[in-house]
Amino acid sequence: MNSSRVVVRSDDLLPPYEQIRRQIVALIMSGQISPGDKLPSLRQLAKDLDVAIGTVARAYRDLEQEGWVESRRGKGTQVARTRPQSASPPSPDLLERLARDYLTAVVAAGFDAEDALSALTAIRAEDGPT
């Protein structure tokens, strides 16, 4: 996995370890990283993201407890060969709730729905289809 796919934003309400955890789960679920793919070392990802090693360690520990990754001393951390049983496809209700939360945050920041849509379109154009 290329660590540039994960970004920690200081203006995000989620703690950095949770941002890392969620982004890695999203990369796994979208197929951008595959079972058996090796994740960056704790030190490397911490350096790349400019966060403490403990922050990355917590994200990796949570991912391992949830069954997304497997860690082996001396071998590093890799994506688990099988998805956790709790990993079901996201529901349309979840998407609607996330969209509403996003729109609420956008409006609270002084933007409107068109600004939000333009920003999403620009991000998708930069990142390519997922």
SSE layout:
Elements: H1 16-29, H2 42-49, H3 53-66, E1 69-72, E2 76-79, H4 92-108, H5 113-127
Antiparallel strand pairs: 1-2
What descriptors fit this protein?
GntR family transcriptional regulator; 2 domains; Arc Repressor Mutant, subunit A; transcription regulation; Tscrpt_reg_HTH_GntR; mainly alpha; two-stranded antiparallel sheet; 2 strands
Overall outline: globular
> What quaternary form is this?
single chain
In percent terms, what proportion of residues is strand? 5-15%
| Secondary-structure element order, N to C | HHHEEHH
Span between termini: 15 Å
Poorly predicted regions: none
CATH superfamily grouping of the largest domain: Winged helix-like DNA-binding domain superfamily/Winged helix DNA-binding domain
Let me know the largest β-sheet. 2 strands, antiparallel
**Total strand segments:** 2
Secondary structure class reads: mainly alpha
Give me the number of helical elements: 5
What is the CATH-assigned architecture of the largest domain?
Orthogonal Bundle
Number of domains: 2
| Fraction in helix | 40-55%
Mean pLDDT: 88
Just give the CATH class of the largest domain: Mainly Alpha
